[in-house]
Design brief:
The structure is a homodimer. By secondary structure, chain A is of the alpha/beta class. Chain A has two domains: about 120 residues, Rossmann fold, CATH 3.40.50; about 60 residues, Arc Repressor Mutant, subunit A (Orthogonal Bundle), CATH 1.10.10.10. Chain A is about 50% helix and about 10% strand. Chain A is built from ten helices and five strands; from the N terminus they run βαββαβαβααααααα. A five-stranded parallel β-sheet of chain A has the order 2-1-3-4-5, covered by helices on one side. In chain A, α7 packs across α10. The longest helix of chain A has 15 residues. Chain A is elongated. The N and C termini of chain A lie far apart (about 55 Å). Chains A and B meet through α3, α4, α5 and α10 of A and α3, α4, α5 and α10 of B. Chain B binds a DNA duplex through α7 and α9.
Amino acid sequence: MPSAFLSFDARVRGTWKKAFPDLIAGTLAQVPPAATPVWALRPAGPDVDVTNLVAGLRRQAGGRPLVLLADEPGEDEALTALAAGASGYCNGHAAPAVLEQVALAVGNGGVWVGQGLMQRLLAATSRGLPAPGAGKAAAWRERLTEREQEAAVLVAQGASNKEIARRMSITERTVKAHVGAMLEKLGVHDRLRLSLIVNGLEAPR
Amino acid sequence: MPSAFLSFDARVRGTWKKAFPDLIAGTLAQVPPAATPVWALRPAGPDVDVTNLVAGLRRQAGGRPLVLLADEPGEDEALTALAAGASGYCNGHAAPAVLEQVALAVGNGGVWVGQGLMQRLLAATSRGLPAPGAGKAAAWRERLTEREQEAAVLVAQGASNKEIARRMSITERTVKAHVGAMLEKLGVHDRLRLSLIVNGLEAPR
DNA sequence: GGAAGCATTGTACTTCGGTACAATAGTTAA
DNA sequence: TTAACTATTGTACCGAAGTACAATGCTTCC
């Protein structure tokens, strides 16, 4: 199954041709039938609504995976495109080998992103993890009572005892009791370390 | 360059052989030289420290991309593996075509993840990100002097003023000066919120 | 019925963190 | 050469955090 490459004027680049000799050229206005995946070159300029662009192309593509090509790629834009349902986002001037690789990935129902963006995704997500070690739900929760867990979350967000007291409708003294119990159970002595544990940056002891 | 497939007993599966007829088999204890990428089958059971496993394998692999295979893959574990430096994480029973695809991606310095995990990464990123600034160097660094940055990192890890003083070879009073300056510059009033900023969980004001 | 765990609150104390009001000295830029 | 910024340290104070030693009322389990 050949790939379809879409641009404003159906112009085809050498690198594309080299990666896919039997490609189908088309314009952004319409997707030729019987081609997968669909590649679309993003129009230049800062005033392009990528979300709409991708959404429109996907409608035309009818379920076939869509890869957006950008001559001036940006990671934020990549996120936008992928969030809008694109299966890939890469440099319009990428080498043929890279294009082939992307085609393989998205052709098999996968998603392709560059390494830089992947790093960023990982960095953003790994923070919310149950921390290294335990593969399951947050380990700290299991050791705390419900009330303590509520307080723990607030502490981890930077709330003071007084604030927590107000939000939990209890006395500041009781907050201290909860916090003290949590610290004891988790083997730490101050709320900052507790915060690190709750935020998945440190493993509970 | 052939791929190396590692398991506990150097056993090779048909799907692997089909994808890479010239693969090199080995045990988790040692990585054969001259093979890239390195595939490692995760030992079964819930008590495996994936972070350590990946770290150890990477040391043995010496720079070659590592793909962790899991017979009961989980997205949390995938994140853990990738965060620990693996280049890919996929089902140990994946079809040969998928394995080839993964090999292509990681062989070219890329990272491979399944579609489900990608969705989750995207969801997590589009929500809880410190917004557009995340792609760059941390915004908080730019506002702080070098010495303040050093102290900031230690504070974010949960060190006390006394500890920081010792590790920076200065007086506790000077630490207070640095911390005070940082809080002022970042618009907060306590070290826990500073920690949230430095750890990327909250945007500086 | 008692033991155990949890939620709640009180008083009192110590320690740590953060700030106010300083000073000295080195480096850089106008 | 000033002015501005930085790094360093001092004394002093206040408030928040954490701990010690309690008590009361509720539920659950043996």
